[in-house]
Amino acid sequence: MRLTKVGRRYAPGGPWVLRGVDLDVPAGALLRISGANGSGKSTLLRLLAGIDAPSEGRIHGRPRTAYVPERFPSALPFTAIGYLTHLGRVHGLRGPVADARARAWLERFGADGHAGTQLRELSKGTSQKVAVAQALLAEPELLILDEAWTGLDTAARAELDLAVGELTSTGATAVYVDHDPRRLAGAVDAAYRVDGAALVPDTATSSEPAPQVTVLARGRAGVSLPGGLPEGTHAELDAAGSARLTVPAAHSDTLLRTLLHADPPWHIRAVREPGRAVEGPQPSSAAQELTS
Length: 292
Description:
The chain is α/β, with parallel strands linked by helices. It has helices spanning about 40-50, 80-90, 95-110, 125-135, 155-170, 250-260, 285-290; strands at about 1-10, 20-25, 30-35, 55-60, 65-70, 140-145, 175, 190-195, 200, 210-220, 235, 240-250, 265-275, 275-280. The strands form three sheets. Strands 5-6-7-3-8-9 form a six-stranded mixed beta sheet, with helices on both faces.
């Protein structure tokens, strides 16, 4: 997708919210959008999602898109599972497939106990998990996240980080806004800032280094590492088949899946996350889940 000289204002003769925006949105990229409150970030995301149309300029290309809005419409007359299954079918999934994916994402975000709860009865945090799940179950080519982490508990925020990494590692694109400058900092391919209706490169960097995960694995002697390792992976492999791989934390589950699903599969000896190390043949809950 590409935006060429795109502008948006909400009334003829009114002020420009965005103007002269040129932006490439390449496949497989993770793009961060920042800016002050009311600067036009959400307007830009709505343009990318196809929910809004530019007042001037052109948007070229329209990948299959899923969008998590800043405010989730929780008053809709659905249960959580009913809403997700309905949205899955809107995205072109068959009913049983939509239902299975919906339940899998609810479980992954720790909200499976609320599958039968009416949306209007959900807490803000659980509503946000449903909002995120409806976008991810579609396996979109372009994922748009507008403050999607807000309201999520710590475990669900980490799960969303991982899900974004998994999605971009398959060649899909994600564009996001988040108030935390450290969010996915180690995985971002390009960052932009909305400033005075213009979109400019954001060269500011977080004062804290992006968290890294180190995986120690063993394969067969003389066997190369599998293809498809997530972007940003640093790998050291010796002749005996032992490997040390370091990857941004947002891509760690993708790395584990790639190793465990290789033919032949790799044996995970340890996963060392920021602040802790877990040794042994089943190093983390993620790896245990992948091998079950």
